Molybdate ABC transporter substrate-binding protein (Veillonella montpellierensis DNF00314), 264 residues
Amino acid sequence: MKKRIVGIIVGLFVCGLLVGCGNTNPTTGDSKNQTFANQTLTISGAASLKGALTEIADEYKKEKNLSDNQIVINFAGSGTLRQQIEQGAPASIFISADEKNMKMLEEKQLVSDVKPFVLNELVLVVPKSSKASSLQDIPTMNRFALGEVATVPAGRYGKQVLDHMNLWDTMQDKIVFAKDVKAVTAYVSQGAVDGGFIYKTDALAAKDTVTIAAETPADSHDMVVYPIALITKNTTDFAKDFYDYATGPKGKAILEKYGFTMPQ
């Protein structure tokens, strides 16, 4: 009889242990999203996307409960980023400010899932103190900022506008070349130059320090299309998931807030 009672007590004790072990308190467990745990995603993005793409990444990390250092974004001129990718940079996603640099990577089969991401506009900006109010004021400017034509799409678009106006040769000695549109914006806002070409989204972000003197005619330069793509050799489920998020409704809402328009 004693053996039977002892057996029952031991059985109940063991059962209690098993139930206790199986009942994990959700408030003390690891709440991190385990899907991409210990993974890092590197994105190469055009400099003009800095504000919008940073916010998209921040919102994505919150939704997925990721650490801040799990997404790294390298911002630079699109031509510079394209060269880095050709040389083996570890990026998994590339967003260019033009189609030319993306097509160069497509021809080398270095990217996949290429599609239009956003559209932008090219505008003439001047310092707040300037009285310039049209493209016709450009010849009167002594110093004019432009992104490097070879590596900065906005610089190439700007050259196309100056060519369209037959001003490229006239302005050659007055142009101050910059590494990206952010640098052009800084030159103008600081009064280091009399004007420059940047994207409308950058001008809106810097509205307290620069003035939009004029918008450039659509027929004066190539359409400003930003394509997005996965980098073939570095494609992961993490990259695909972020790609879908950035091109989906939540990503688009943030992009529109920054003044970008969506491709039809």
About this structure: The first strand starts at residue 41 and ends at 46. Residues 159 and 168 are 7 Å apart (CA to CA). The two ends are 83 Å apart (CA to CA).
